[in-house]
């Protein structure tokens, strides 16, 4: 049995915050606003995994109203998703994800992101795709107001 899931997330830029994408802190003029570390890439991947499992989304497991998870590293969220998958007898076969941002450049950090994401999910780096594109200066991403991410996950029965 093979199951797929899709995830999408957006966070606005905010001043005075570190920019964390795929568990990697990237030097940039702005970070992303959010209750956690606002790692938009990890959040899209988490929702893809949860979706494939037929589980409620990330907001159910990590409600923004919960003060105990303020500033949480989103790799911990991925670890929780992998745990839920294992408890349901499912194995993560692969993840593919795209970041949509005008800046910063993601490519130099993609290998490190794959390393962090795969370690959190308990899989190998070559089971994780991390890609990036701009929005051709169109819309809120194009105006540099934030970063969007989308992801798919493929899981199989152990
Ligand atoms: Zn998010």
TrEMBL record:
Pathway(s) of this molecule: Isoprenoid biosynthesis; isopentenyl diphosphate biosynthesis via DXP pathway; isopentenyl diphosphate from 1-deoxy-D-xylulose 5-phosphate: step 4/6
- Could you list this entry's UniProt keywords, alphabetically sorted: Isoprene biosynthesis, Lyase, Metal-binding
Cofactor: record remark = Binds 1 divalent metal cation per subunit.
Query: Mind telling me which CDD domains this protein's record contains?
Result: MECDP_synthase
What are its cofactors?
a divalent metal cation
What catalytic reaction does the record list?
4-CDP-2-C-methyl-D-erythritol 2-phosphate = 2-C-methyl-D-erythritol 2,4-cyclic diphosphate + CMP
Residue numbers binding 4-CDP-2-C-methyl-D-erythritol 2-phosphate: 9-11, 35-36, 57-59, 133-136, 140, 143
- What SUPFAM superfamilies does this protein's entry cite? IpsF-like
Query: What InterPro entries does UniProt report for this protein, alphabetically?
Result: MECDP_synthase, MECDP_synthase_CS, MECDP_synthase_sf
- The residues the record assigns to binding a divalent metal cation are 9, 11, 43
Enzyme class comes to lyase
Q: Name one Pfam family in it.
A: YgbB
EC number, as in UniProt: 4.6.1.12
A GO molecular function annotation here is: metal ion binding
What biological-process GO terms show up in the record?
isopentenyl diphosphate biosynthetic process, methylerythritol 4-phosphate pathway; terpenoid biosynthetic process
Report domain 2-C-methyl-D-erythritol 2,4-cyclodiphosphate synthase positions: 3-155
Site description Transition state stabilizer, residues in chain = 35, 134
- Function of the molecule: Involved in the biosynthesis of isopentenyl diphosphate (IPP) and dimethylallyl diphosphate (DMAPP), two major building blocks of isoprenoid compounds. Catalyzes the conversion of 4-diphosphocytidyl-2-C-methyl-D-erythritol 2-phosphate (CDP-ME2P) to 2-C-methyl-D-erythritol 2,4-cyclodiphosphate (ME-CPP) with a corresponding release of cytidine 5-monophosphate (CMP).
HAMAP family this protein is in?
A: IspF (MF_00107)
Subunit arrangement?
Homotrimer.
Of which family is this protein a member? Answer: Belongs to the IspF family.
Q: What is this protein called?
A: 2-C-methyl-D-erythritol 2,4-cyclodiphosphate synthase
Task: Name its species.
Answer: Prosthecobacter vanneervenii
């Amino acid at each position: 049995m093979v199951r797929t899931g899709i995830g999408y997330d957006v966070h606005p830029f905010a001043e005075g915050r570190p920019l964390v994408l795929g568990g990697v802190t990237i030097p940039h003029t702005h970070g992303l606003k959010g209750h956690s570390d606002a790692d938009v890439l990890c959040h899209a991947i988490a929702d893809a995994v949860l979706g494939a499992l037929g589980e409620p989304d990330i907001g159910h497991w990590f409600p923004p109203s919960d003060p105990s998870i303020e500033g949480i590293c989103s790799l911990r969220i991925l670890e929780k998703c992998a745990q839920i998958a294992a408890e349901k007898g499912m194995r993560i076969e692969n993840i593919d994800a795209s970041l949509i941002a005008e800046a910063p450049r993601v490519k130099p950090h993609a290998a490190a992101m794959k390393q962090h994401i795969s370690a959190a999910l308990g899989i190998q780096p070559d089971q994780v795709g991390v890609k990036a594109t701009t929005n051709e200066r169109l819309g809120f991403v194009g105006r540099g107001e934030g970063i969007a991410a989308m992801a798919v996950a493929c899981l199989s029965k152990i």
